[in-house]
Amino acid sequence: MTILGFTWYYVLTFLAVLSVLIYVHEFGHYWVARRNGVRVEVFSIGFGPEIWGRTDRNGTRWKICAIPLGGYVKMFGEYFPGEGESTEERALTPEEQAVSFTHKRLGQRSAIVAAGPIANFLYAILVFAAVFSLHGEPIPLAVVGEVVAGTPAAEVGIRPGDKILAIESEPVTKFEDLRRVIGAHDGVPVRLRILRDGAEITLVVTPRTQAIANADATASGVRVGRIGIKPDPAHVAYERHNPFVALWMGAERTFVASGQILSYLGELIVGRQDTRDLGGPLRIAQMSGEVAQDGGLWSLLMFTAVLSINLGLINLFPI
Q1: Which of 4, 36, 161, 260 is most buried, judged by most C-beta within 10 A?
Q2: Phi/psi zone of residue 122: left (φ > 0), alpha (ψ -120 to 50 degrees), beta?
Q3: Phi and psi dihedrals of 171, rounded to 5?
Q4: Sign (positive/negative) of CA torsion 259, 133, 308, 17?
């Protein structure tokens, strides 16, 4: 990759993604603060020396700074003494108290603080909804991406790249169809019609209940068969949804992703996950570039939605 290509796919993409998420988060704080009569003195994207800025009619200084690794909203009444400055705040006039953050009611201050993370969750919902409505929900096709060792699929010779056309006499196109039909044949041999290297072959495989599925089955009284294959992420179809359905799906996807992140963090705390899986700005930059290069705009938007959920959750933690 050329220096220009690296700069475009990694550096510029990273800065664009990060700037959007910072703006969304800080605008949540700003908007609710203004609705509650708080004077906002500074809205900054980045830290350090200002490289561009303007002051609006409300007295807010909107600026972009030289170090684009964060941002902040400075509200009147928040006092952070610098080096050599007194830690004592001056008395505010009644007019100043009316627009001061620290003189607002507890409920108002709480709403302002929570508005940033809430804005991140709303952004994720809207981005998911836009993608599902305009581009479509990615639906994995019935193409094998991975065969798990020691499973029925591996035993009968199913290979990555195999396209499953039918199970017994029932045609399948989506991986979900494949999972559904296989799941209903636990312990029963089934014939798979497979397209491999341009030729059709037939393999007989006997699904069996895996340990994790068996735990669910015990609780529900239903046995679910598995053969040990995973879909190929390179083979997907896109199904568009109307805006209302897409909005509901966006909310559901955001809720599920939040639960997965919290579950991962819980496992990290008890030592079930490796901290090497975590990543900072450099890892985000790498992933942003890879997503933009391999998946295009729609995949990059989905990536920003997931990052926005992470940002929203992190800012709700009391640290």
Answers
A1: 36
A2: alpha
A3: -65, 145
A4: positive
220 by Cβ neighbours in 10 Å (0-12 / 13-18 / 19+) ranks as: exposed
CB 167 within 8 A of CB 260: no
Write the pLDDT tens digit of every residue in 38-87: 999 999 999 999 999 999 999 999 999 998 888 999 999 876 555 445 54
Cα dihedral 304/305/307/313 (nearest 10): 160
HSE, side-chain direction, 13 A CA sphere, residue 161: 6
φ, ψ dihedrals at 56, nearest 5°: -85, 180
Beta bridge partners of 73: 43
- Tell me the three-class secondary structure of the chain, residue by residue: CCHHHHHHHHHHHHHHHHHHHHHHHHHHHHHHHHHCCCCEEEEEEEEEEEEEEEECCCCCEEEEEEEEEEEEEEECCCCCCCCCCCCCCCCCCHHHHHCCHHHCCHHHHHHHHHHHHHHHHHHHHHHHHHHHHHHCEEEEECEEEEECCCCHHHHHCCCCCCEEEEECCEECCEHHHHHHHHHCCCCCCEEEEEEECCEEEEEEECCECCHHHHHHHHHHCCCCCECCEEECCCCEEEECCCHHHHHHHHHHHHHHHHHHHHHHHHHHHCCCCCHHHCCCHHHHHHHHHHHHHHHHHHHHHHHHHHHHHHHHHHCCCCC
- The model's pLDDT over 95-111, given as tens digits with 9 standing for 90+, comes to 888 999 999 999 999 99
The one-letter code for the residue type at 186 is D
d(CA 246, CA 258): 18
Distance CA 295, CA 173 (A): 22
Tally Cβ neighbours within 10 Å of residue 184.
15
Active site residue 26: yes
91 to 39, 78, 94, 101, 240: CA distances (angstroms) = 17, 13, 10, 14, 58
Candidates 26, 96, 137, 155; catalytic one: 26
